[in-house]
């Protein structure tokens, strides 16, 4: 799913917001309800007032009750009264018994108090005769909800702020955890730890940040490979340059000492040409490795290109047998004639170099609906099975990798610097193709030679 992190955050925030409003509403209602009842101690005090009034009325009479009521009103700074009630229906009507039982002139001490009313309610404590009632306006000191304002401030400001901070922290951790790992990996990579990767530390995530980590790992893999390749290339190039440089030094000494100056100059010219070719091939290889270009600007006839290359190879190796099995034409589009020609030339020359004069190199081209398949078969000594992939490595010596055959090895010409097949592989990859190598055998199991197979998209 695209934008996984976006939808995850949306769901988290939406759910968190709904839960936040629900929790605030529930807590507000619950708090207001719990604060709307008279404290139990005050309830008992009001009930005691009612019992005292009834006791004084019965034992000491109304005069004593008047004095007590005045003292009570002054003490509680409110009004109080004792009344008699007798409900008398008329017009041939009657009241249900349950109504008479529920009827009250004021509020019971156990009832909920409306906190938003400015005036305190009138409380009623009925006497035992059910016709007399003690009434008192709830004293201000007994009014519930004294801390309602502070509770509202906490519920409407402090609590939402705390919950939103917690929600923000959870979201921050969810987003920053992989970013923090990516930061540490980037720092470690910049310090030279080229094997550091991020994706293994995020096994249970699958969102944009995971894809960012995978992109970083891909970048780190590519950069580390480029660095390793450059280091190896530099080390190999340095090693390869030592021999021609040593020979150049010796040739310069011969010229200075006038010892065979003509031969020394030829040696200088040969070694300079060798070094130039080595450096040019190495730079080309480095460019292909580093830039990974896509060479797809040419449309041409593949058969025509192969015929030119084979003709040049026959001229260069007149004692070798080079046969071809090519169709009449093979049009290829979005390719590179230069890169493909250089790659084919290196492969064909390599095959001719290791095939004795009495044997044959065959170049064949077949085509299908999707690709062309070029096969170059030599009849040389082959390559050890475990080294077939190594022949495409820079500066790998083909003659050292091939199956031991002293007669063939001694008669074979020098194998160059080991860059031909490495360049060919990268040039073919740059035009979207691939190359592989394998030994091929006779029906009796005898090794016949090496087979290079190149596949190109049509």
TrEMBL record:
Compartmental location: Cell membrane
Histidine kinase domain boundaries: 236-458
Enzyme Commission numbers on file: 2.7.13.3
UniProt keyword Kinase, yes or no: yes
Topology in the lipid bilayer: Multi-pass membrane protein
Catalytic activity: ATP + protein L-histidine = ADP + protein N-phospho-L-histidine
Principal cellular location given in the protein's record: membrane
Membrane-spanning parts: 6-27, 147-172
GO molecular function, one term: phosphorelay sensor kinase activity
This protein's UniProt keywords: ATP-binding, Cell membrane, Kinase, Membrane, Nucleotide-binding, Phosphoprotein, Transferase, Transmembrane, Transmembrane helix
Pfam families: HAMP, HATPase_c, HisKA, HK_sensor
Catalytic class of the enzyme: transferase
Annotated Gene Ontology cellular component terms: plasma membrane
Domain HAMP, chain residue ranges per copy: 173-228
PANTHER family from the UniProt entry: SENSOR PROTEIN CREC (PTHR44936), SENSOR PROTEIN RSTB (PTHR44936:SF10)
Protein name as it appears in the record: histidine kinase
The organism of origin for this protein: Paraglaciecola chathamensis
């Amino acid at each position: 799913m695209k934008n996984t992190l976006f939808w995850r955050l949306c769901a988290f925030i939406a759910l968190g917001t709904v839960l936040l409003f629900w929790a605030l509403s529930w807590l507000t209602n619950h708090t207001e309800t719990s604060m709307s009842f008279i404290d139990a101690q005050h309830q008992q005090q009001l009930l005691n007032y009612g019992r005292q009034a009834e006791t004084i009325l019965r034992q000491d009479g109304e005069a004593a009750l008047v004095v007590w009521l005045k003292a009570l009103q002054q003490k509680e700074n409110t009004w109080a009264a004792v009344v008699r009630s007798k409900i008398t229906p008329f017009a041939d009507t009657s009241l249900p018994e349950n109504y008479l039982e529920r009827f009250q002139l004021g509020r019971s001490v156990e009832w909920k108090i409306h906190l938003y009313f400015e005036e305190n309610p009138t409380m009623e404590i009925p006497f035992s005769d059910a016709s007399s009632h003690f009434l008192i306006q709830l004293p201000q000191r007994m009014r519930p909800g004294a801390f309602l304002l502070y509770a509202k401030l906490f519920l409407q400001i402090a609590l939402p702020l705390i919950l939103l901070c917690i929600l923000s922290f959870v979201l921050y951790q969810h987003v920053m955890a992989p970013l923090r790992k990516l930061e540490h990996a980037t720092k470690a990579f910049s310090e030279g730890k080229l094997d550091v990767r991020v994706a293994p530390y995020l096994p249970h995530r699958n969102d944009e940040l995971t894809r960012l980590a995978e992109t970083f790992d891909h970048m780190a893999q590519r950069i580390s490979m480029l660095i390793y390749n450059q280091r190896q290339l530099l080390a190999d190039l340095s090693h390869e340059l030592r021999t021609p440089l040593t020979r150049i030094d010796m040739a310069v000494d011969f010229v200075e000492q006038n010892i065979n100056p003509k031969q020394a100059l030829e040696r200088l010219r040969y070694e300079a040409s060798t070094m130039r070719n080595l450096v040019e091939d190495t730079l080309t290889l480095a460019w292909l490795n580093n830039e990974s270009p896509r060479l797809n600007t040419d449309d041409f006839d593949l058969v025509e290109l192969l015929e030119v290359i084979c003709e040049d190879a026959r001229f260069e190796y007149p004692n070798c047998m080079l046969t071809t099995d090519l169709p009449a034409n093979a049009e290829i589009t979005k390719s590179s004639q230069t890169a493909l020609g250089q790659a084919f030339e290196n492969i064909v020359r390599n095959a001719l170099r290791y095939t004795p004069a009495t044997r044959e190199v065959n170049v064949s081209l077949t085509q299908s609906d999707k690709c062309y398949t070029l096969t170059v078969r030599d009849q040389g000594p082959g390559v050890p099975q475990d080294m077939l992939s190594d022949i495409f490595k820079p500066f790998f010596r083909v003659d050292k990798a091939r199956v031991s055959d002293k007669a063939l090895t001694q008669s074979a010409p020098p194998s160059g610097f080991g860059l031909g097949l490495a360049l060919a592989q990268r040039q073919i990859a740059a035009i979207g193709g691939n190359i592989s190598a394998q030994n091929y055998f006779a029906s009796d199991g005898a090794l016949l030679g090496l087979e290079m197979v190149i596949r190109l998209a049509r």
